[in-house]
Design a protein that fits this description.
43% helix, alpha/beta, single chain
Length: 169
């Protein structure tokens, strides 16, 4: 039998729905004046973890949405292995997050907008499918991309405007 018969079924409507949940988390980050990135972890069709960037709130450079969602998902599952889970995140993961994603063995990663300068899921590099690593994730790119990008662009435009008004910020 061919590999196609054993490939997981990708439900694009579900992808759009779960990315919507990640976008809601990103909106929470925006409201908290954090870079608006949100993430959810899905297992067996259910969200088991939600998170948004909290770097400034927690004064922790590792408090990216993906990292916080991973920790919450591990607690939910009761194991550090998340090999039957999918991560939905509004922006392509950075190298730090991609390393953690490979380590916990996510089956699949779905992201909204790409990051050609710093993304590690095919943008600047691809750690999620790096040949010598012990695990490779399936990647789905561009789900609700315009909404994810618009939220980030709006946030940074607002930050630039505030900086022009008050250069100390």
């Amino acid at each position: 039998m061919s590999d196609e018969l054993h490939a997981p079924i990708v439900d694009l409507q579900s992808d759009a729905y779960f990315m919507g949940e990640a976008l809601r988390q990103a909106a929470r980050a925006y409201e908290a004046e954090e870079v608006p990135i949100g993430a959810v972890v899905v297992r067996e069709g259910r969200i088991i973890a939600r998170a948004f960037n909290q770097v400034e709130l927690l004064k922790d450079a590792t408090a990216h949405a993906e990292m916080l969602a991973i920790t919450a998902a591990e607690e939910s599952v009761g194991d550090w292995r998340l090999n039957d889970c999918t991560l939905y995140v509004t922006k392509e993961p950075c190298p730090m997050c991609a390393g953690a994603i490979v380590h916990v063995r996510f089956a699949r990663v779905v992201f909204g907008c790409p990051d050609p300068k710093g993304g590690a899921a095919g943008g600047a590099l691809n750690l999620l499918q790096f040949p010598t690593l012990n695990h490779h994730c399936e990647i789905t790119r561009g789900v609700r991309e315009e909404e994810c990008r618009a939220l980030l662009q709006s946030f940074f435009a607002e930050k630039r405007t505030k900086k022009e008004i008050d250069p100390r910020k």
